[in-house]
Structure formats: C-alpha cells, structure tokens
Description:
4 strands; two-stranded antiparallel sheet; single chain; mainly alpha; about 475 residues; 21 helices; 2 domains; about 0% strand
Amino acid sequence: MSGIELGGRVDSATLATVGGFLLAGALAAGIVTVSPVLTLAVTAGLAGVLFFVVRPAETLIVAIVFRVFLDILWWVPFSVGGLNLSQIFSGGVFVLLAVIVFVRMRDLRHHPVTGWALGMLALLVLATVRAIDLAADVDILVRYFTAPLMLLATAVVFDRADQRRWLIRLITLAAIVPVAYSMYRLATGMSGYVLHGYVRLLGGYKNIHNHALVMMCFAMLFLGWTEVVERRWVRLSLYGLVGACLLAIYFTYTRTGMLGVAVSIVAYFVALRRFRLVGTLLLVGAILVLLDPEVQDRFSDIAVFFDPNADKTQMRSLGSGRWGLWSWSMAEYTSKTWAEMLFGLGLGGHRLTTLDWSRAFHRMGLTLDPHNDYLLFLYQMGPLGVVVYLGMVWGVVRASLLVLRNGEDRWSRGFAASMIGLSVGVVVTNGVSNSFIHRSAPGWYYWSLAGLIVAEAIAVRHRLVAERQGARRPRLIADAEAQPASP
Length: 487
C-alpha cells in the first residue's frame, strides 16, 4: 500500500504536493513571527503527518524502530507544554494508529484478532467515558489504547512479506544498540542504583522493570533468528546477544523479568518440539538456582507463601508488598456495587482501590497502581476487560501456531516460535506485576510484533486456501469429463 486511500477526488500525491507548499509557507512565516525552534518542531511534526499519509507503512517502520532508541534517550531535555519527548512521540503515533485503523476498517473484517481488539477498544471507550479524572489519565489512555490499535494497524499495513521481514530485521539490528549499551553500563559500574539492598542495572533505561522486559523481548527476537541464519558465526553471535539479554535481566534483579524470560525460552523450545533441550534447560536452571544465593533470596517469598505458619505481616510483605496490595485492593473492589464490579470503576479507577494501602503503609496523598496488569483491567473495565485482553493474546498464539505448522520457510517458523514463547511470557508477567499493559515500552514491542505474526498468519491462510482450491480443480474437471454425455 503506497498511501492512505482518501477517496476518488483527492489522492495522496495531490495532497502531498499541496501540503508541501503549505508547509513551506508556514515554515517561512513562523520563523519570522514566532520562535524558530518551536516553528521547526511544529513543521517537523506536520511533515511527519504528511509523510504518513503518503507512506503509512514506511512511517510505522520508522516509528517502531525509533522507539528502540527512544527508550534509552529518556534523559533528553526536550518538552512541549509539559510533555517530554517520549510522551509527545507516543501521543503522535497513537493518533496515526487510530487513523490507520479507521481508514482500513473494511480490510480488518476478516482478521483473526479483529473481534478481540475491537472489543477491547469498545471497553476502553466505555472506561474513558466513566474516567475518574480524564485530564490526569491521558497518559494511561494513550498507553492502553495503543495495544489494540498497534495490533490491528501493523496487521493490516504490513500485508507484504518483504515489508514484514524488513521491519523485523531492522528491529533486530536496532536492538543490538541498547543491548550493547546495557553491557557497557554493566562493565562500568551499573550507575550505582540501589533498591532493596541490590545494586541494580538500569542499562540506560529509566526504570529497571522496563529494562528487564525490553531485554526479554529482544532475547526472544534474537532467539527466533537463530532458526533462520545458516552461517555459524552469525548464529553464535545471536546466541551471544541472547546471553547478553539474560545477563542484563539478571542484574536488574527483577523477579518479573527473570520469571518472564525463563518461561518464554522454555515455551519457545516446547513450540519447536525440542523436548530434550527443554529438559536440559530445566536441569541447568535448577542447578543455577541452587548455586545462586541472589536468585534464592529474590524468590524466597515462595517458601513463605506455602508456609502454613506464616503470619499476616509476612503474607502482606510477599513480592515487595504486592500480595498485601492485591488483597487489600481486591477487598476494596468487592465492596463496590454489582454494577461497578461488572463494568469496572472507569479509567483511573484502580487508584481508588489502593488508597487504604497507601494511607497505611506509605503516605497520605500517594496513589498506587495494583502492580498487576489483570487487576488493572479488572478494576477499570470489569472482568470482561480481562477476558478480552486474554482473547487478544490467545489470537496471537493461534496465529503463531498456524504459521509454525504451515510456514513456508524457517524464517516464518522461527518467528512464530519466538512469538509463542513471548506470548507465554507476557501472560505470566501480566499476572505478577504491571508489565505489558501499564508499561508502554515493552508493550510497543510485543503488540507490533504480534501484528506482524497475525499478518503472516493471514498470508499462510490465503496460501492454504489457494492450494486446496488448486487441488480440487483437477478433480472436478476429471469428474466432469467422466460423466457420460447426455443423449
């Protein structure tokens, strides 16, 4: 698709020409009458919109790849109206995704995840209408809406195999930069960030959980490529990058990242039916846990959870206080009316369920999210929000299974296996912390890659249908010729 279809009277080329003249005039006038820096920034934004109209696929490629670098550029001192660079970028791409989905809605009718994604959009609209304080929750709104929009937009825009493969190749190459930078920060002292007695590796990211979850996505992407490449040194390099990602996750000391990448890798090899390797990995993992006191300490809460003699204080402190936060917030949620429990409390309503916890253990005026993505959806959109979200992920898994079983080459099968593994990791991490919903960085990677595997599955389905029809045609002709001629 070379451009957005705008109707029979105006095509994208005409719009580009007219828009170019308008941009040139606005740039000249703005530099003379307004701040040159602001004028250039606004003009760059308008130029991006114009480029999107003419080349939507290329615009999305640039946006997704740029996100890889943006996550380690959070420190750039750029803001407009109180919004930082990441917020401006996320908001702009959110608008572009919404335009793509709206314009290409007809093409989305037969996509395997459309029903789930549109259902999520409908629930989000309902939650937004009932928002507690919409002005304060615009950032949350953009974050939540981006997931289904990104899934649909990438699935419909990248309908050519060469586009999909180029995008994944570019993301993979771009990912080498933050992985290498993370290793550089590890080698030069880890920045001295200390939390719960551990010196944590931020790796250039603003948050250790973002760092761990993004490295998890990159690890699965690199692992998928090992099924494709034939040169030994390239495969060894990819395994080295996977190892670097695992090392980065380990030194964040985040249980969410460790658990997520572990189950993702196991699910990846299970999908490829390499059961002996799975057994070996489980054995090696168990030995490492037994020999590593840091991992034992980070996961020591498991023993407390199954201890029948554990008191309320111990239980409440499980998972850095998550268990107490979950139980207190659930008690508050179940005290609401049936209608509020069924439809949720509206966008931002999750903060109402954690007020008692904040007052008791933190300070007055502090608001917390429940540190669990499923509870976030439950409290804001009701149980249907959780079901629809899991339906979206299941749609991605089904698409991946179709490609894994019927893909034409090793590339498609390797990518499908990596998406199965990553999807399993997403489901697990959603349940133990705020991960791929409440955190925009890892969510971007997962849902953009999810859209690509859905597009790949659609292409596989079309090929299978064509092959069946092609196989039936000779039989129908032979049957027709075998029929005796009528007298």
